[in-house]
Write a structure and sequence with these properties.
The protein has 13 helices and eleven strands. The chain has two domains: about 190 residues, 3-Layer(aba) Sandwich (Rossmann fold), CATH 3.40.50.300; about 100 residues, Helicase, Ruva Protein, domain 3 (Orthogonal Bundle). Helix 10 crosses helix 11 and helix 11 packs antiparallel against helix 13. The chain has about 325 residues and is of the alpha/beta class. It is globular, with a radius of gyration of 21 Å. Strands 2-5-8-1-9 form a five-stranded parallel sheet. It has a two-stranded antiparallel ribbon with strand order 3-4. It is about 45% helix and about 15% strand. The mean pLDDT is about 90. The longest helix is centred in the N-terminal third of the chain and has 23 residues.
């Protein structure tokens, strides 16, 4: 397929995303980047791990997106006494008919907010992550497919660690993006106060239907990416594993215990194409990779004790890699 044809298809279909962002902007103030990343995760068929203190509209963002897409939304509050069946569903006995029938849990929705995922035991986290990976849930002897699209946004509170069950690295790696949500600036918070004090209901107009996402994904799949951009992605990922191969990054050797997995390369390529799509382009440029790369890589680097002793963070390592790896 010619680039011109791909570009035309992108222009024809991606304009709806601007309308979705505009509708969400009626409710959400000062979190433009998070909204865009949420859409990129949705278009790339990936899931999102969101880290931020309470009160920053995390629930409101994803529920508003569900309204703008006329999709179903469920919020699950993760607690220490939660069981896997509480989220996936269970078998219920019908005494009148003498049979068991499946009762589906809250996972059967298009958009799931897994609030404070690290408060639930590992077996509950595993049940959620299995559903994320397989896009299906087994209740009793029957396997049910989850609705399409299916996106999980899991949140973590970075401040309070007492009584939590941190996600193992292998499970964190299942999330396409890890985002850090920050406080709004002065003017944005002023708008928030004005809106909330009035307490007037805001109606969100549905722009897309859930089935529209499949057609968008088929266009994104065909977006053109040059071979040298694939190589750029691989150099970024390999620099997290073997920094000594790159002269300007040799000082990172010994600071990284474990680098990014091949899943990072796949997600980075997918997310770059989705970013190009949101910019209404039928081809990927280096800026697409740089724009989304830190969100894909920041949670996939495990630091050594030496790095922790020097008070370095994975964010510092990723920033250094992006600064030093040559852009094609």
């Amino acid at each position: 397929m010619q680039i011109e044809e791909i570009h035309r298809r992108v222009l024809d279909t991606s304009s709806f995303l601007d309308e979705v962002k505009a509708e969400m902007g009626k409710v959400i103030v000062g979190q433009t980047t998070i909204i865009e990343r949420l859409l990129i995760g949705l278009l790339s068929n990936g899931h999102i791990l969101l880290e931020g203190v309470p009160g920053l509209a995390k629930t409101l963002i994803i529920s508003t997106l569900a309204q703008a897409m006329k999709a179903t939304f469920k919020r699950i509050q993760f607690t220490p006494d939660l069981l896997p069946a509480d989220i996936t569903g269970t078998m219920i006995y019908n005494q009148k008919e003498g049979i068991f029938y499946p009762k589906k849990g809250p996972l059967f929705a298009n958009f799931i907010l897994a609030d404070e995922i690290n408060r639930a035991p590992s077996k509950v986290q595993s049940a959620l992550l299995e559903a994320m990976q397989e896009r299906q849930v087994t209740i009793g002897d029957t396997t049910f497919e989850l609705p399409k699209p299916f996106l999980v946004m899991a949140t973590q509170n970075p401040l309070e660690q007492e009584g939590t069950y941190p996600l193992p690295e292998a499970q964190v790696d299942r999330f396409m993006l890890k985002l850090k949500i920050t406080y709004p600036d002065f003017e944005a918070e002023k708008q928030i106060i004005n809106r909330m004090v009035k307490d007037e209901p805001i109606t969100i107009k549905p722009i897309l239907k859930p089935e529209s996402i499949d057609s968008m994904r088929s266009v994104i799949k065909d977006i053109y990416m040059e071979e040298k951009l694939n190589d750029y992605i691989l150099h970024l990922v390999f620099a997290t594993r073997q920094p000594q191969r790159y002269p300007r990054l040799s000082s990172l050797h010994g600071l990284i215990e474990c680098g990014a997995s091949p899943r990072a390369s796949i997600y980075l390529a997918r997310a770059a194409k989705a970013h190009a799509y949101m910019e209404h382009r039928g081809y990927v440029i280096p800026d697409d990779i740089k724009a989304i790369g830190k969100d894909v890589l920041r949670h996939r680097i495990i630091l050594s004790y030496e790095a922790e002793a020097e008070q370095l963070t994975s964010e510092d390592i990723v920033n250094r890699i992006f600064d030093e790896i040559e852009v094609p």
